[in-house]
Amino acid sequence: MKKTIHSGTKALSDFTHIECGQVFQALHMHRKTLRFMDKLLFDITFIKLAKQVDLEVCRSLEFDGMEMRTMSEALRFRGRNLINHKNYLAAVRYFELAQTIEGEMFRFQQGNKPEIEKAPTAKTVSAGYKIV
Fold first, then answer.
1. Per the domain annotation, does 55 fall within a domain?
2. Contact (CB, 8 A) for 22 and 94
3. pLDDT tens-place string over residues 50-80
4. Residues of the domain holding 67
5. Backbone angles phi, psi at 56, to 5 degrees
6. 127 in a structural domain
7. Phi and psi of 9, rounded to 5°?
8. Does a structural domain hold residue 40?
9. How many domains does the structure of the chain reveal?
């Protein structure tokens, strides 16, 4: 039986307009700290979300594992930044959003992990000989 592999999951499907904005704000702030190749990889997610201003479109976007990890990383970065500014309540909210996205990422990866067939292995050379 062939397994269907999905291109992504709607990680933001249950997010409110404010939460989608918080994800975008976290991505925007974290993007400023990145350089070169990290920024290029990060921009895949950032541009995808930046183009969407409508809440329904934002909720319907599909993200793959890398994009969800990028969002989680940015939300945790923003949370740590808020802790440094003594804004603990807002920081907790950003960490909760990161945890929600990581949960979606885990479900996505569990549902799309490759099936690995175990190949028969050859016996080791020393297994057939008696060492005297």
1. yes
2. yes
3. 776 566 677 777 788 888 888 899 999 999 9
4. 17-111
5. -65, -40
6. no
7. -130, 155
8. yes
9. 1
